[in-house]
Amino acid sequence: MSLLYIGQQITIFGGYLMIIAGIFGNIMNIIIFTTVRTYRTNPGTFYFLSASINNLIYIIENLPFRILSVGYNIDFTIESTFWCKFRNYQYVMLGPISYTCICLATIDQYFVSSLNPHIRHMSNIKWSHRILIIIIIIWCLHAIPVFLYVNNVPPNSICINANAIYRVYMTIFGVVFLCAIPVGISLIFGYLTYQNIQQTKTLVEQHADRQIIRMTFVQILLMIIADVPYTVFSIYLSITNQRLKSYDQQVNEYVIMQFAMLISYICFVANFYMFWISSSRFRQTAKKKLFCWKKESIVFPSHT
Fold it and tell me: Which of 179, 220, 253, 268 could form a disulfide with 186 if both were Cys (CB 3.0 to 4.6 A apart)?
């Protein structure tokens, strides 16, 4: 059994598992965050809702085709130039939107837990709506160069970034904007939020929600787990790109990269399950939606 075969099987079975878990989890997030009033009117959970919708689209448009390409050697990007460009466009556009939402949720928890009333006032649901629209527009515009530089390259019509400068930029962008900056912002504002919590006896005085803060913290942890392996190995590949490598070393690096890319999907898949673990209120709400454990009492008129 070759290492390449093992890598393919990991992608196939791990990918299927992530598709099922990700679609179910994000749909549950969307249902909960849109039907529970305390969540619906909270800027932090509005960002979680937006990330969940984005994650659902990201999973549906990426994971199935990744399984086909890596696991079964069926690559539709070779057959269609439009799909080659469009798939890379939405990959470059959708990923940053989710990471930005996580950062904004972390910043909002700092605002809402602050002792300063002016800073607390910056946590505003109307502002959150406007900020999200601006963020979506920015990332949509940022991904437009994909249509110019990503193409099917002969003789095998492989879908790649054909521009050397843009290729270097995208490597730097992945390391800086999809790992270093999101993790850095989340850690900084997560620490500042923790400091705010320590300075007050009760978060009720600040209209803050301890459970939503915990949900934000576990989302930060999830982002670190998902991003760091892929980012570290991407840096290694960039540094060693010009070195002469044996076939076995190339296979080893290919398998490790596929595994790291699969792990990177955790950030888009596992948020519902982390919310379930970290928040008792979220857990009880999810149980009601799933199992109808607590049905509303219905009083029937008596017949005399």
Answer: 220
